[in-house]
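=== Structure Prediction Worksheet ===
Name of assembly: unnamed complex
Input type: mixed (protein and possibly other molecules)
Chain count: two
Listed entries:
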Amino acid sequence: MHGNTATVQFPHCRAAPALWLYSPASRRPQFSRLQAASVPSRIAPLAIAAHTATTALGAGLEAQREALACGRGGLRRNDFGDAPLECWIGRVEGLEQVPLPATLSSWESRNHRLAWRALRQDGFDAAVAAALERHGAQRVAVIVGTSTSSIGETEAAYTRLENGRFPGALTQRHVHSPHALGDFVALATGALGPCLTVATACSSSAKVFALAARMLQAGLADAAVVGGVDTLCGSVLYGFNALQLVSSDPCRPFDADRDGLSLGEAGGFALLERDAPQARAWLAGYGESSDAHHMSAPHPQGLGAQRAMAHALARAGLEAGAIGYLNLHGTATPANDSVEARAVAALFPDTLHASSTKGWTGHTLGAAGIVESVFALLALEDGLLPGTLNSHRPDPACGPQIRFEPAPRTVAHAMNNAFGFGGNNCSLVFARA
Amino acid sequence: MNATPSFTAGVEGIGLWATQAPSWAAYRAWRTGGVTPEPVARPAPSLLPPNERRRAPDTVLVALEAAQAACIDAGRDPATLPSVFVSTYGDLAITDHLCRTLATAPRELSPTRFHNSVHNAAAGYWTIGTGAMEPATALSAGPAGFAMGLLEAIALRAAGAPAVLLVGYDGPSPEPLHQVAPSAGLLGGALVFGPAVAGRTRLRVSVEDGETATRANPAAPGNAMAPMLALFDALAQGAGNALLPAGPGRVLRLELDRG
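=== Predicted Assembly ===
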């Protein structure tokens, strides 16, 4: 029926598209499309010259390392804003006390303060400066992700309207835009290459690796600052609350008793280069897909997730058994975790060590991709595979790949999953240098 | 300093919707022959079922309308295309609604408005409506947005995608957001890029130093995505050059010809 409709309405289509007009999900042949989809071929790995993350666990890699190793979580009772909701958050300490330097003061926002702090950890700013020197500033791209950018500033302005208009101090035009983050990072680093902000909700700062890889391989740039920053704000706290996805306890990913997520904030960055003098690790593959199912609920069989993971493996030229650690999206909502566990069990052997680190940091939304990529890189560097903090009672619906306890093990390849609203999926494969 | 290489792509399909020119055919007739079209208030993409069409944000509707038209023009099944959705601001009516609710009764925030507030709302509705499991990206880059989306589309093709859908769109900003995020009217433009083959419009793309001249386009005066219309004007003529802003002091040079 849909084929006929399409033929009548679009007579010059070379092949009548079967799925052209709206059709209920139940009538779409999604399995056949998953299997029929062409699998991408292997790509040349890209060097990761530097990386860093700043989360509720602290600023920089040492703080992340120490907290992951000791099982020290970063969640606290929600103390963000007036009359806070009853829940737990991963809040970055002290952002209120440290303003941006005077030269950047017109960019003031919580998000940019966190971006600024994150950029200056672990010698990341020096690594970018060296890349600018090596390649020329116009050959260094900035590709960063965020879900809410500096919307906290917009929210604040609405509480202080004067005669229906923003008060003078809150009208810095460039802060109230999704791309404020990209602009700020370009300004803060001095990079003058292509600059864009990816905003695909919770997959944003995983997608940036895929966009950067393509841009570098196409020769549009020689290096790219990738990463992401998202900060706590009313929109996400009350928005996820409205969707009834927030737990009143610290989140327990994959636990049989899990009842929702804990929100967090974070910033992190990586420097990707096609030819770097020294690689700290490698981006070996990336895979992206769409669920084509629902705006805020995952595909029940996790077909989109499977496709993203399978394509990341294919681009890395690896079999599933070669992955030693998988950092799961694992938000701790009942639906997301069981769907992801099912997708993982469909692709990976029982021996895989997979875990969610959201119990440490909370769900940092548009920053989750970079933070958890950094955690996967630390697992490669340190040979310590994180467990799943706060989770104790395994869900029988989740397979043996899901691990609650940490394991010391040297692995050669690690994967990171990030899945966002709109059914937007991204998986990344990293390789030890 | 290394020069950025230039790239060539074939333009397989074009779609456009603006309040003042509610189709690509109307826009082209207007810009090349001076035939002023009848304005239309709101697009109605057949991709969405009627109840979702009523509820969907206007920016989603205009993006889907343009995208659908470009795929029809290209004769491509949209389910087979990776897509790149570019918007400067996303849906400012929703941002306004969320911020007003947060300022007065935050616990009454609407869950539907919240999930529609994500910058990838149009990309999400598109992939759901077409059944596309191909990658979809949503990005923002100020005035350079469409140029950055075009670079990503080119990079997707270079990485092996036979054809790619690129969509640019923005909507009006209500007060007080208009102070800080100026945009007016509804505008969506979409292109399907494929191989550069004989008989098809070819686009040669390179990045260089320079500035673009700001010229108001009567089809979408004040719309934040209006810089992309320089390319659509060149496409309406079937040949010539267009410059798109590509960041401070940088432009995307687009040279069109018939293969």
